[in-house]
Amino acid sequence: MPPLSALRPVIRAHRPSLRSRDTVLSNTLRVPISAYVVDCAVYVDGERLPGRWSHEEALAEVRLRDNAFVWIGLHEPAEEQITGIADVFGLHELAVEDAVHAHQRPKLERYDDMLFMVLKTVCYRGRPDPSAEHEIVETGEVMVFLGADFVITVRHGDHSSLREVRRTLESDPEQLALGPAAVLHAIADHVVDSYLDVTTAIEDDIEDMETQVFAPRSSVDSEQIYVMKREVLELRRAVVPLGAPVRKLTEGYSSLVPHDVRSYFRDVDDHLVTVTERIAGFNELLTTLIDAALAKITLRQNSDMRKITAYVAIISVPTMIAGLYGMNFDEMPGLHSPLGYPLTLIAIVATCLALFRVFRRNEWL
């Protein structure tokens, strides 16, 4: 490979003020850019060139070759660190600001000869538990800067790794030879496939909840259902806004995405529609389960009240009779008879048993 000093005129031809910006940058950076770079690779005709590259060297090498591009992966870079890469590659300052601060909605924006796309990543952490500290559906972000000869990915979140995506693409040089747009498609496809995995896990848990709600004599935790509904809404906010950007890519929104790659985005769009329909179904089903759980709780409370009322009615019989005979009157039925006391007890027991039988027949007890 030619030394970097021989390539600087080439870089200067594309970025006239690169030297002055690099001089200022070197005086302001405290943490090296390499600390935030997960991987930096140069691809020529779908094959990865060996060696380790800085972002300046990689760009210089790419612009000396045909059908080559550079892919740089960053993880949660600080503003001063990404500024060095932004100056070299000519990234728009608004897109750079979004990539640093994150918390963006899925979107696709065009800046001159560059595309900037934001995708929300999701990860399902397990069954809903109101006392759990972690979220059920954990979200992250992947930002993609797409140029004619470069792809820069910025990840936020611990679960949004693109290592497997890179490995899969490198094992398929024919696909990778389609250029940076093929990387964008692979990332979008990977993210949408993770949506499918998450919705499958949520579907299994919702089926378990449904069985629990409608099972006889089962305890129903409506708070657990509400937590699941809240997380489904969080998933919806990550998935639904991505539909418009993906459809733009299928319709020739930019020349950076060639016709050969647009057909792949149609497949991503189909999967995204499937996920969106699933989420809409989850939301309706969880609303129904909440109503059913509340109705079951109300029914159980009514049943408890009937039981309490029935027992109060039974207990009121001996209470009433004992109260009558305790009023200290001399002229009362059976008061002076030796059979008065046992007959009174028999009457109390018979009346209580009769009431118990009536309530039991009416399923109050």
Automatic annotation (TrEMBL):
Keyword Transferase: no
Superkingdom of the source species: Bacteria
Regions crossing the membrane: 308-327, 339-359
SUPFAM superfamilies: CorA soluble domain-like (SSF143865), Magnesium transport protein CorA, transmembrane region (SSF144083)
Any single Pfam family the record assigns to this protein: CorA
An example Gene Ontology molecular-function term: magnesium ion transmembrane transporter activity
Keywords: Cell membrane, Ion transport, Magnesium, Membrane, Transmembrane, Transmembrane helix, Transport
InterPro entries: CorA_cytoplasmic_dom, CorA_TM1_TM2, MgTranspt_CorA/ZnTranspt_ZntB
Compartments, as annotated in UniProt: Cell membrane
Catalyzed reaction equations: Mg(2+)(in) = Mg(2+)(out)
GO CC terms of this entry: plasma membrane
Cited Gene3D superfamilies: CorA soluble domain-like, Magnesium transport protein CorA, transmembrane region
Signal peptide segment: none
Membrane topology: Multi-pass membrane protein
UniProt family annotation: Belongs to the CorA metal ion transporter (MIT) (TC 1.A.35) family.
Known function: Mediates influx of magnesium ions. Alternates between open and closed states. Activated by low cytoplasmic Mg(2+) levels. Inactive when cytoplasmic Mg(2+) levels are high.
Protein name: Magnesium transporter
Organism of derivation: Pseudonocardia kunmingensis
